[in-house]
Amino acid sequence: MRRTALVLLCCLAATAQAADVHLLTAARIHTSDPARPQVEAMAWDDAGRVLAVGEAQELLAQYPDAERIDAGEASVIPGLIDAHGHLMGLGYALMQADLVGARDKAEVVARLREYEKTLPEGAWLLGNGWDQNDWPDRTFPTAADLDAAFPDRPVWLDRVDGHAGWANSAAMKAVEAAMPGRTLAGDWQPDGGRILRDGDRATGVFVDGAMDLVGKVLPAPDDAYRAQALERALAAAARDGLTGVHDMGVSAGDLALYKRFADAGKLSLRIDAYANGDNQALADLCADGLYRHPGGRVQMRGVKLFIDGALGSRGAALLEDYSDEPGNRGLLVTDPATYEGIVRKARGCGVQVATHAIGDRGNRIVIDTYERVLGDEAKSDHRWRVEHAQIVSPRDIPRFAPLGVIASMQPTHATSDMPWAQDRLGEERLFGAYAWQRFLHSGAHLALGSDFPVESPDPRLGLYAAVTRQDRDGQPPGGWLPDQRLSAAEALRGFTSDAAYAGFDEKQVGRLAPGMRADFVILAEDPLAVPASRLDELRIESTWVDGKPVYEADHPAKP
Ligand SMILES: [Zn+2]
Fold first, then answer.
1. What is the distance in A from the centroid of ligand 1 to the CA of 413?
2. C-alpha 118 to ligand 1 mean position (Å)
3. Residues of the chain with pLDDT > 70: what percent?
4. pLDDT in tens, 10-33
């Protein structure tokens, strides 16, 4: 980048217009535009709008005074969009003890002891990312596993899927102190959740709605902490080649934080925020209309709702019993009548609905509800979405496309869940599990994401998982349920143009064509040509939003 030269040009040139043009050349630019899928050069203006794409000679002749950026042998793709993530969740996770990949409880405790050194006396020790499926005995942990190392300091650790939490005894004591006249013992259960018990004593694990009991007593993060968390999340996203995210479940307070960052020019990521259920943010949308920041980096025009839990913690609502727990069909976290009421309210306000549905029963309830609420208007441009659509009855998969419902799916969930998904579901139900190709064949739009921080935000891992359906060691050979693998081009479309469509952004981003925003990623190699086994290792040279770099490998931003 010759920034100095650019400044001189802009001030001395007789025709300011020419100097304000930036011209990128590369071995190949994949535009995701069917009209012109591959070019060598792209020009954009200072406002970050693409002016032209084409052959290098053609554009060099057309814009002789443009600032030249020569990416050499590199490949360029449209900026990657994660169609389902949790930006503040990622930020908070980056501020907490990281338990992802811990191979047993001893490793969890060891990591917590190390992290504890950074904490002031008496502060809660927060961590996330544990997964009992990674441990030798695969059973849920208990408070006792933490109490020896942390007898006094309260400890609260989110499971990797965010649908269960693990507390020590000090944390449970704090919970009980906040509920006078009641204890965690007994046989009562909170709405939409489960306190795991041994006899009548709480073990320390809280599933779905029961996690709120602990959530309520956690010290609230202050403004400075939240801003720091957001900065960390933005830096991580830019490093991973993300230029956009659909942020699922944003409070009015978090939206205000995003606006502040956008006003200050500190928002390096385009955020499509979805309101967090039937709360203040949705009320604001209904009162004031859909929101769009003038700079184009933040919008809120949708709401994120939940119908069920997750498969790992057996909270996903199934039509039949869990294969590995007879009598359990999972749980609905929202009562279907209440859910339908909120969907109708959103419809009335012109708000796009996105619903978390993992189990086949959860998915059926959502599709039935969408069908009833949309009625004759299924053909309108509503773009309602099902988030995860993870286990869907073969009867329901073909219902998405005619209703205009988008399947928003996460390739890395399939490869994370594949070691135990068949235990939970049995073989027959796998037909509709993580069934990306069946959705594509049915004509549904398939938007791809990661659900970070449940999974890594790195979209290269998503591309790799989508194309291989293997873990990063290449297992199982040929991939898990390999007929559902995507091609590299299909996977890239899911992370670019189809993700943009799911956010009503397809006229702005997701393709590189005249009039579009210059959001793109420069990669050392061609993602459509490298062997699938190497998609997770593609080197990101730089990430650009509105024609300006937000990450450069050679000039990494400070953490
Ligand atoms: Zn999520």
1. 11
2. 29
3. 96
4. 333 344 444 599 999 999 999 999
Q: How far is the CA of 27 from the centre of ligand 1 (A)?
A: 37
- CA of 131 from ligand 1 middle (Å) equals 17
Mean pLDDT of 389-407: 98
Alpha carbon distance 518, 209 (integer Å):
42
Note the pLDDT of residue 454: 86
Cα–ligand 1 centroid distance for 60 (angstroms)? 44
pTM of the predicted model as reported, rounded to 2 decimal places: 0.86
Residue list, CB under 5 A from ion ligand 1:
248, 451
- The rounded mean pLDDT for the chain is 94
* Ligand 1 geometric centre to CA of 277 (Å): 13
- State the distance from the centre of ligand 1 to the C-alpha of 374, rounded, in angstroms: 24
- Give me the amino acid identity at 95: M
Round to whole Å and give the CA distance between 248 and 271.
10
Peptide bond into 476 cis (omega under 30): yes
> 358 C-alpha to center of ligand 1: Å?
11
Judged by average pLDDT, the poorest of 282-291, 359-368, 550-559 is 550-559
What are the distances in angstroms from CA 233 to CA 226, 255, 491, 522?
11, 15, 24, 21
- pLDDT tens for 502-522 read 999 999 999 999 999 999 999
Exposure class string for 112-145: b at 16+ Cβ within 10 A, else e: beebbeeeeeeebbbbbbbbbebbeeeebbbbeb
